[in-house]
């Protein structure tokens, strides 16, 4: 199970964000399968990998029990998300609505990943990296398996927003802030930057683009 | 080492299936290298990744010691398989013979992976997922590294057969069946479905293929 | 942290090689991002994955705490390497200079990876594999994420040199050699073979190239 014992103050928020994050990411994985005209089995596989992949890597790296192995609800959420996309033909929804859900999941996971690592004694810099990995790795694996260019290779701001969110949380907690406040600010910072990227096409300059 | 202590009843079958599964999957990895006209070193790398990759992921996820790290025989089997494919020019064998060997390995691993996880206290749904991962992940990594479309993206029934096999085993054991009987039925179910896929070209419908 | 306690005799050499290896591999990751005209965030991601990816896999497989999670310096080195490549426009350096740095890192990591696993009780054959993985896996992940053919699929001698280096170290230590001497010989063997590959285009024959 996810170890949130040392961060009880923000447990209700975290629990809600945690399951919501899995669901949102699972939907995005199933949508990738829908775009590739895949089968229901691939829907389920992509939903699970995208939904729980980032947190799995985080838990392996920090030496914690992998959060979904000891219980059934996280996997069940992924399977339900895959079935829902298949049945509801969610790929006909407006893409924008999904982008916003994904932004919420990303911002939540950036804070949750950093908070879990930090609460287990991981130093600040690796904790920030855990937040970034939790928020982005599921999507990266999904893209590699689907054979499409990963989010890493697009210039749109995504990983940067995750980094801003987890760094904000860690810096504030290190400065003595209440973890609930730090979590809220970290979430808002990550979500806000990602919202600018979605709404205004904000992107990072590529190498040499801005230098000469 | 692979922890089969809690499932002593099916240990002889499991031991035989286990090493046979590594060998069969290692051969399929070496054949992928042969098709790409690779070197003997790549043969060995692909054989090892395909042979032991699925079980490695399972062990990392359930927190067990990785089964091949504490001993030399599993790696030795992979190296022998790579050398055998190189020397015997096994890529000229009929493809069908390999498909059948692979089906045996897949069905065996689906049961073994689920049984190992379940015997260590993992709940039913994650245990079934462990069976599917053990049976399919080695081949997925092999395909990604080789740059060919992974089995995940083909509609042929493969992952589904692994899911049927591991789910049959877990459901029967949960219902109180003898683990030897459950293992045999799980193996037969997974192998049988895969055999139908090979023999009759059975495939799953892609998204929207069957719906409109 | 990296557990070198049982190999104190070569600790100074190992520490130097270890950080140098991370830096050199991180630079090669950032250069891959530069070639793809990526953003500074992708530079950092590729530098970290390439710099610490191999050692991360090794530590997960042998069940040791992942070496960079409990401290900040390894990640800091990766970020500095990424920033340095961005600012110094290192992709305009002669490619040859990078190849030689990379060869040093590869040979060092092949010995370090094997030595760490062996010192924790892993048998000889899996220890050699750990050396090969530590030396090559970061680069493999980098190539897969970047969507370019991985070093595994090129015939140039690279993985073979890592295998020669780690095997030399393990065989010598098993025969009773001093670990410092064995480490030096292993490094020289791996680096020497890689140097021949770079300097003279030494490559392995592909399957059937040399056989008919």
TrEMBL record, chains A, B, C:
* Entry's transmembrane regions: 13-33, 40-57, 69-88, 95-115, 127-145, 157-173, 179-198
GO cellular component, alphabetical, reads:
plasma membrane
The record's principal subcellular location, in a coarse class, is membrane
Membrane disposition: Multi-pass membrane protein
Q: Which UniProt keywords apply?
A: Cell membrane, Membrane, Transmembrane, Transmembrane helix
**InterPro entries annotated for this entry?**
Gly_transporter
Q: Which residues form the Glycine transporter domain?
A: 16-89, 99-172
Report the subcellular localization. Answer: Cell membrane
**PANTHER family noted in UniProt:** INNER MEMBRANE PROTEIN (PTHR30506), UPF0126 INNER MEMBRANE PROTEIN YADS-RELATED (PTHR30506:SF3)
- Indicate the family of this protein: Belongs to the UPF0126 family.
- Protein name (Swiss-Prot/TrEMBL): Glycine transporter domain-containing protein
Q: Which organism is it from?
A: Sandarakinorhabdus glacialis
């Amino acid at each position: 199970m996810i170890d949130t014992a040392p961060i009880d103050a923000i447990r209700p928020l975290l629990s809600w964000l945690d399951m919501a994050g899995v669901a949102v990411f699972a939907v995005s994985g199933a949508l990738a399968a829908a775009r590739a005209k895949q089968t229901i089995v691939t829907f389920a596989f992509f939903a699970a990998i995208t939904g729980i992949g980032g947190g799995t890597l985080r838990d392996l790296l920090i030496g914690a029990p992998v959060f979904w192995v000891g219980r059934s609800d996280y996997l069940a959420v992924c399977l339900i998300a895959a079935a829902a996309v298949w049945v509801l033909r969610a790929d006909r929804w407006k893409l924008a609505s999904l982008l916003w859900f994904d932004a919420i999941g990303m911002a939540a996971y950036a804070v949750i990943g950093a908070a879990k690592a930090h609460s287990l004694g991981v130093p600040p810099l690796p904790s920030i990296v855990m937040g970034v990995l939790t928020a982005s790795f599921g999507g990266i694996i999904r893209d590699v398996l689907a054979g499409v260019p990963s989010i890493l290779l697009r210039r749109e701001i995504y990983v940067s927003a995750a980094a801003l969110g987890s760094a904000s949380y860690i810096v504030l907690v290190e400065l003595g802030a209440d973890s609930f406040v730090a979590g809220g600010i970290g979430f808002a910072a990550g979500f806000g930057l990602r919202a600018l990227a979605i709404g205004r096409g904000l992107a990072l300059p590529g190498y040499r683009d801005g230098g000469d």
